[in-house]
Write a structure and sequence with these properties.
alpha/beta; Alpha-Beta Plaits; Rossmann fold; nine-stranded mixed beta sheet; four-stranded antiparallel beta sheet; 38% helix; globular
Length: 394
């Protein structure tokens, strides 16, 4: 592909991403994979260059751009060498018109910027869109961090999690023997802290209420030394089905999975009510803390969706609390820095449950945020998270 053809390909991809964001379609990574599956003539260098251009343009445009072309013209304002590639060549984009303007530069849609400005210090917001690092969690069931670090050139121990390794960009993990043998999982260091906040121990009964594909479930299994009862629950069959092969690879045999029926979860969990030593509620959320990995997600969020998520967060928090035994621990987390998704639902829960107590330091990182702690890319080098730990009275 010529440089101009690469630019045109990026324009087409961003068009698809903008359309999917408006309609609730597939994520950018999926769309990029589909794009190149239909264009097998593109080599690895072409794919890498096109992907980089597309993501640079997506990150740059705070508001959803009018088109992929507008997004890439905006990028050319920051990277003037790109302007010459709008040359009208056979596979390249048409020249930029005299009155044609690129998409404005920004961090997020204006209504979200206003909300984030309440919780982020000046200069922190831009870090939400920087390229994310590559973190591994070393599986304690099979290995220790020092031994695994020797298997990955350039690996550095994480600053916050005793199980974390940070690898150089471009490191091959999923094709490595260490991954195939279950020694490691790809997991942001901040996400690892959520599991650590649970303080799970061998022999406990632990419920991961919104387990998804089970990344934190596997971390909990390692903390429990695969001894005890660990129940991973979710309403999404496809995501939950990915846990079993991951658990087998990790050597985690004590995990049970339980598919829940949305709106009827309590009936499926009746046998666990008031029985769990620890319940983790990694609640569905906007994902605003993961924009470094999914920058188009900020175009998908609307005030109405944020309100619906709030109702869902309150629901799963109450459901999780009902599972906790007297004296047990409830950990609530979201990969979001928005007040509405972190401090607010936990604060509301505490108003209704004044006898529950708050662990003011569920993790040794981040900064105080209402009844919990907030981690941010700028301050902590992790994705953005809110984590709170509550204890039920005996």
């Amino acid at each position: 592909m010529t440089p101009s053809a690469r630019l045109q390909a990026a324009i087409e991809i961003v068009d698809d991403v903008v359309s999917a964001a408006r309609s609730g379609g597939a994520a950018a990574d999926t769309l990029i994979a589909r794009f190149f599956k239909a264009r097998r003539y593109a080599g690895s260098k072409d794919r890498r260059a096109v992907r980089g251009l597309a993501y640079d343009a997506i990150r740059r445009a705070g508001e959803p751009p009018a088109s992929g072309r507008a997004a890439l013209i905006g990028l050319a304002e920051d990277q003037p060498a790109l302007k010459a590639l709008f040359d009208g060549s056979p596979h390249g984009p048409a020249p930029i018109g005299v009155d044609e303007r690129g998409a404005p530069k920004g961090v997020a849609p204006a209504w979200l910027v206003e909300k984030l400005a309440r919780v982020l210090a000046p200069g922190e917001m831009a870090a939400l869109l920087e390229r994310a690092p590559l973190d591994l969690r070393v599986n304690r069931l099979k290995a220790d961090r020092a031994a695994v670090a020797r298997l990955f050139p350039g690996a550095e121990p994480g600053r916050l999690s005793p199980d974390a390794l940070r690898l150089p960009e471009g490191s091959m993990v999923e094709t490595s023997a260490a991954f195939a043998d279950g020694l490691v999982e790809v997991q942001d260091e901040g996400s690892q802290l959520i599991a650590l906040a649970c303080r799970a121990r061998p022999g406990m009964t632990v419920v991961d209420l919104c387990a998804g594909a089970g990344g934190k479930t596997l971390a909990l299994a390692a903390m429990m030394e695969d001894e005890g009862r660990l129940i991973a629950c979710d309403v999404d069959r496809a995501r939950l089905s990915r846990l079993n092969p991951r658990a087998e690879r990790a050597g985690a045999r004590a995990i049970e999975t339980r598919l829940l029926d949305g709106g009827r979860e309590a009936a499926a969990l009746a046998d666990l009510m008031g029985q769990a030593d620890v319940v983790l509620v990694d609640a569905p959320c906007s994902g605003s803390g993961t924009w470094r990995r999914n920058p188009e997600a900020r175009w998908r969020l609307t005030p109405d969706r944020l309100q619906r998520l709030g109702a869902m967060q309150a629901h799963v928090l109450a459901l999780g609390a009902a599972l906790v035994r007297p004296g047990g621990r409830l950990v609530y987390a979201v990969c979001s820095l928005l007040e509405e998704e972190g401090p607010a639902p936990v604060g509301a829960f505490l108003v209704d449950h004044p006898d529950w107590s708050v662990d003011a330091a569920p993790v040794e990182a981040g900064r105080a945020s209402g009844p919990g702690r907030a981690l941010s890319p700028a301050a902590d080098g992790t994705d953005g998270f809110f984590i709170a730990a509550l204890e039920r009275p005996c």
